[in-house]
Amino acid sequence: MGYDFKSVEKKWQDKWEEKGVFKAVDFSPKPKFYTLVEFPYPSGAGMHVGHIKAYSGLEVVSRKKRMQGYNVLFPIGFDAYGLPTENYAIKTGIHPRKVTDMNIEKFTSQLKG
Q: Given Cys at both, which of 29, 63, 88, 101 links 43, Cβ 3.0 to 4.6 Å?
């Protein structure tokens, strides 16, 4: 009997999303904890092992702090401007704005998936 990780992961991610588990709350009485990782350039065909290496450690620390009762702010964004995006747009022949939007959508789904 195999472990159906897709259905188990989806179940818990849906519950966490529904309950807003990963949202920081303004003016919460809980102690505050803030962490930040460099935002990725959404300028490639998807995330690579370097992204995962950078995010996974802080994700673990953030989850532990939440479990300890902290109000955790761990924002994610995308550094969507600059040479990496321009070079990827030139390489693929797709307008930089469209490349950026497509890659942000892909990166977001990879982070959640």
A: 88
| pLDDT reading at 27 higher than 90 | yes
Domain that holds residue 87: 29-112
CATH of the domain at 82: 3.40.50.620
Quick one: CA torsion of 34, 40, 46, 47, rounded to 10 degrees? -50
**What is the number of domains present in the chain?**
1
User: Do strands 32-34 and 71-73 pair parallel, antiparallel, or not at all (unpaired)?
Assistant: parallel
What pairs with residue 32 in β-bridges? Answer: 71
14 in Cβ contact with 62 (< 8 Å): no
Q: Answer whether 0.90 is exceeded by the pTM.
A: no
Environment class of residue 42 by beta-carbon count within 10 Å: exposed (0-12), middle (13-18) or buried (19+)? buried
